[in-house]
Amino acid sequence: MSAANPRRNPWLALIGVAIASFLGCIDFTIVNTALPALGQELGIALTRSQWLITAFVMALAAFMVTAGRLADLVGRRRMMLGAMLLFGIASLAAGLSASLAALVLWRVVQGLACAVLYTASTAIVGHAFDARHRGKAIGLLYSANGLGLAIGPVAGGLIVAAWGWRWVFLLNVPLILVGLALVWRHVEESAAADDGQGLDLAGLLLLTLTLPFWVLVLVRGGSWGWSSPTTLGLLAWAALLLVILIVVERRVAAPLLRFDFLARPAFSGACLATAGLAFFYCAAFLLMPLYLADVRGLSSAAVGLLLLPTTAVLALLSPWAGRWADRFGTRPVLLAGFALLVASALLQSGFDGHSPWWRVILAFMLMGAGWACILGPSTLAAIAAVPGDASGVAMGMSWTLHNLAGALGLAVTTLVLQHVSGDFVAGYQQVMTVLASVSALVLPSLLVLLRKGPVGCAQATA
After folding, report:
1. CB distance 134 to 330 below 8 Å
2. How many angstroms separate the CA atoms of 90 and 438, rounded?
3. Domain total in the chain
């Protein structure tokens, strides 16, 4: 563990960073269950209020890589403190908003802040702990992250029922202040070596313009129609900007996007793992509550309890997954994770209105176990595959692909449900078959890309 300043406690630093990262992750999903109440109070149709989700994801994806590069350049602690403060302000303002326009604006600000919370947090924890404990520490961080992603819909429903939709945002404020105090006191500054090349402004501009169009197409294409002029026009524009971005980044001395990293099998394998996970859980966690409520007729409280086999296993197993990655390397843990996801999806592909509850619980537990085995170790693999002074960029790239794959998973789910309109059970079964197939295809790809190498994060340097 870091001993540069004995007054700084790395475990308290981890707690502070985990609070911020947890809030960023829970905000990714918690707003979904607040939309009906929010729309009713403000007189907003549900189709319009969904822009609160779309705007957040667009801002998050657009700024993710830039956040990682800025953290490497100006200091990860400095960027984390600024992002936490910005997130708290945006949460307070969102909770006090009186119109959809104001809410969308502050959701954009939240998305920009969360881009830093996601990328800088792992690099900070990696710097605070030595190679022997790094996997365990990052596993604990991702236990908090995964729990935030997973319990968002359940927590949102309980908060809205108890206090109203505004508290979905307002509760962030006191929690982020606790995290801010811990980060201020216990996190040491870390940054990449000064190469004198600064920030790639051309890449920043092009990336900021390109990614929102891809997210918009994936998220809204199903609503507009995949063959509609709007969708096709946006897709063509997004593709053109992507080509320009690739050309420009290949000619810049210090590019914002390190496409050469993708030529490294270990890094591309780590990105494939995190993308495959996001594709799976974004689709599955959209449908699982609907299956429990609409098909099995459970109340909101009962749905929350039945989702605990996934969320509790995810939270409890994530630190162990980090330890296993430290001991055996990330490759076997990631392979085990996708094998567990395949098993979960195959079980769920047979669900109907009378499936025995032991089978439902077992499938949900297998999903939580697979999620835990992939979330943290894929991050460890990405960090270990690149030089230590580029960890922020690596995290930004892998998380950008994570978010895009999650949006793609939601788009595929929408397509399948539209195809079997009126028969949710058939749609659920088909989506789970798709998820099992995709996860099964990831397994041999990881076998090829993730050659057996150094154990844990021993390569990663801060």
Report:
1. no
2. 37
3. 3
Instruction: Give yes or no: residues 223 and 265 share one domain.
Output: no
Please choose, from the candidates 351, 115, 301, 333, the residue with its C-alpha nearest in 3D space to the C-alpha of residue 215. 115
**Cβ neighbours for 223, distance < 8 A, ≥ 6 positions apart:** 47
Rounded to an integer, what distance in angstroms lies between the CA atom of residue 233 and that of residue 218? 13
Encoded tokens for 259: 């496409």
Cβ atoms 380, 274 nearer than 8 A:
no
Q: How far apart are CA 411 and CA 404, in angstroms?
A: 10
**Residues 230 and 152 placed together within one structural domain of the fold:** no
Look-up: residue for tokens 């966690």?
A: 285
Tens digit of pLDDT for each residue in 143-185?
A: 787 777 667 767 777 787 788 889 989 999 999 999 999 999 8
Q: Tens digit of pLDDT for each residue in 5-55?
A: 557 788 888 899 999 988 888 887 777 667 767 777 887 765 566 678 778
Q: Are 300 and 356 in contact (CB under 8 A)?
A: no
**282 and 165, same structural domain?**
no
Does residue 320 sit within a domain?
A: yes
Instruction: Print the SS3 string covering 275-292.
Output: HHHHHHHHHHHHHHHHHH
Separation between Cα atoms, residue 314 and residue 323, nearest integer Å:
14
Same domain, yes or no: 94 and 181 = yes
**Three-state SS for 329?**
coil
Domain that holds residue 461: 257-462
Residues 301, 387, single domain; the answer is yes
Torsion of CA 119, 120, 126, 128, to 10 degrees: -160
Q: Compute the distance between CA of residue 394 and CA of residue 348 in angstroms, rounded to an integer.
A: 34
pTM over the 0.85 mark: no
